[in-house]
Specification:
heterodimer, A: Alpha-Beta Plaits, four-stranded antiparallel beta sheet, two-stranded antiparallel sheet, 2 helices, B: mainly alpha, 65% helix
């Protein structure tokens, strides 16, 4: 079992969601996050004064998958979340020691 | 005393007869007659009728002006947070540009007394003419008349803002505002209120279902067609996505403000401080209430839930619907007109959104265009000569409507008005928006739409300090800082 953590453009979230559901990913956690990176953070101006809000907003996906499905999901993310411009985001893969589904008490791959 | 009353009524009747015809000159005439009469026959009343008229006209103009706030709140409430700054700018500036152009030339077109029944320009009224630096009662009367007309012109202009929200360039919108206030609205306004060909036919549009609301609504239709739907509104297969509003209480506040402002819009259109304003206010109230109830019921049946957004639109639909017939129908007729408007706006919104695939974020085309047309036609169905004559004269009052035994004469006149205004405004505005599109550009880039017009057009956000989807996509990369 692996956990995929992907930081993607919020604008790409809907596309990613629909593509992932096509390959059978129906369970995930996602959140709106702030971060800093290579891309310049959002610029604003107020009455002629320019300022930097100091962060870039992104969407973070956390998806737990059976190891067999890992490559397929990563490939999908690399394809759909890609624009080629700075700030497309990153993908991190973690080992999952174990998993349970609380309702049924299923364990391991069956719980995912 | 009875004589005074009778003469007063006769005098008011004369004013009404020429209600919209070269208003300034007429008011001057009436004031001189009134004061001469007062000296001869009775002591000067505490508040002369001529002064009361001006105060009433100004007071109601202030109320109509406040409708700008209502439009701004409705529009920003029903759209996304990331475009709110842009919407405030549009709603402020369409009034400001419109007022300047209506002062410079719009008013001179609308109330020109030329030979042509279709178009005219009275250079004596440009820049307010004799009332530019008024020093007498006649000048002040013209000032009041202009003030009352300019807030109406601005209402027509601001209707379009909602239908084109979230994707239109500010500069394009400003150009449009100038053109509608300087040309399109005054030309069609002249046809009905300025003694033009529709006025000669005997059309009745008391407070502007067609003159103001349909003109705005059909201009909105042209704008929404040319600018195209918002990014993400329609899927490739043509199915519709809901683009959810960001502040329903703000939208509701806007509708309350509009309703409040309508008490200036309709009762003020008597143009005179007469007792008949109360009936106009009552029909306005009842139609709004009926419109809301009808939209509530129909949305409850169709959506299985009572829909706030549709009910708010139903309220406005009732108000737009009663605007033309408010001084020509009974209270019972007003309720029926409002109910039908509430049903009409519901189906019309869905028809434009789902069948024609025209993206109108607030439903302005349905509320103002469609219900404005309905209200104008309603005069020919529910109009009663006896009620209408109280605000005009026996000779200039409408014929009884179809449902009151007067046959179809009045209805046909009203229908000609509705159709000709629709055709003229739609064609004129399609041309104007097309020219804007190919010159300065009408639509912002997709990247800017994703990021929000607040950041793209204005560089700031409406709700600073909050994280919104507004800043989310961040698709525009102004300066790459790739250190690799």
């Amino acid at each position: 079992m692996k956990k995929i953590e992907a930081i993607i453009r919020t604008a790409k979230f809907e596309d990613v969601l629909s593509e992932l559901s096509k390959i059978g990913i129906k369970f995930m956690t996602y959140s709106e996050v702030k971060g800093i990176g290579l891309e310049q953070t959002t610029q604003q101006q107020y009455r002629g004064t320019f300022f930097d809000v100091g962060f870039t907003p992104r969407t973070r996906l956390e998806i737990a998958v059976p190891t067999s499905k890992l490559d397929q999901v990563v490939e999908c993310l690399l394809k759909v979340a890609h624009t080629g411009k700075v700030g497309d985001g990153k993908i991190f893969i973690y080992e999952i020691a174990d998993a349970y589904r609380i309702r049924t008490k299923e364990r391991g791959d069956a719980a995912l | 005393m009875q004589t005074v009353f009778t003469l007063g009524r006769a005098l008011l009747g004369r004013i009404r007869k020429f209600k919209y015809h070269a208003l300034g000159v007429l008011v001057l005439f009436c004031i001189s007659t009134a004061s001469a009469f007062a000296q001869d026959a009775a002591p000067e009343p505490a508040l002369p009728q001529s002064v009361a008229n001006i105060i009433w006209l100004c007071l109601t103009a202030f109320l109509v002006f406040f409708m700008q706030a209502g439009f701004a709140m409705v529009e920003s409430g029903l759209t996304r947070a990331k475009n709110s700054v842009n919407i405030m700018m549009k709603n402020l500036l369409d009034f400001c540009f419109g007022a300047l152009l209506f002062w410079a030339m719009g008013y001179a077109i609308m109330y020109s007394s030329g030979d042509s029944n279709f178009f005219g320009f009275d250079s004596a009224l440009a820049f307010l003419g004799s009332a530019n630096a008024p020093t007498d009662a006649g000048g002040y009367a013209t000032s009041a008349a202009w003030l009352f007309q300019v807030v109406f012109a601005a209402t027509a202009a601001t209707i379009v803002s909602g239908a084109m929200a979230e994707r239109t360039k500010l500069i394009a919108y400003l150009l449009y505002s100038c053109l509608i206030s300087a040309l399109v609205y005054p030309i069609t306004g002249r046809w009905i209120w300025g003694g033009g060909w529709l006025a000669d036919m005997g059309i009745r549009d008391f407070a502007g279902s067609t003159v103001v609301h349909s003109v705005g609504g059909w201009a909105a239709l042209a704008g929404a067609i040319i600018v195209g739907p918002r990014l993400g509104k329609y899927n490739k297969d043509g199915s519709v996505n809901a683009i959810t509003p960001h502040n329903m209480p703000l939208a509701a506040l806007g509708v309350f403000i509009l309703w409040f402002g309508w008490y200036g819009f309709n009762p003020g259109s008597t143009l005179l401080a007469i007792s008949g304003v109360s009936h106009v206010a009552v029909t306005t109230t009842l139609a709004a209430a009926a419109g809301a109830v009808a939209a509530l019921i129909i949305s409850w049946i169709h959506f299985k839930k009572p829909d706030l957004s549709m009910t708010l639109n139903g309220t406005l639909a009732g108000l737009v619907g009663i605007t033309a017939p408010c001084a020509s129908v009974s209270t019972s007729s007003a309720v029926i007109i409002g109910l039908i408007a509430g049903v009409l706006v519901f189906y019309s919104c869905l028809f434009f959104e789902r069948k024609l695939k025209i993206d109108d974020p607030v439903g302005a085309i349905s509320v103002h265009g469609v219900c404005g047309a309905w209200g104008t036609l309603a005069v020919g169905l529910f109009g009663q000569h006896a009620i209408d004559a109280q605000y005009w004269t026996e000779e200039t009052a409408i014929k009884d409507g179809l449902f009151f035994g007067g046959g179809a004469d009045q209805l046909i006149t009203q229908a000609i008005g509705v159709a000709s205004i629709f055709a003229f405004v739609l064609v004129a505005m399609l041309i104007i928006f097309f020219v804007i599109k190919v010159s300065v550009g009408l639509r912002v880039s997709d990247d800017e739409q994703l990021q929000g017009l607040d950041l793209g057009e204005h560089g700031n956000v409406a709700y600073g300090g909050f994280v919104f989807e507004s800043t989310g996509p961040n698709a525009v990369i102004t300066k790459e800082t790739d250190k690799k």
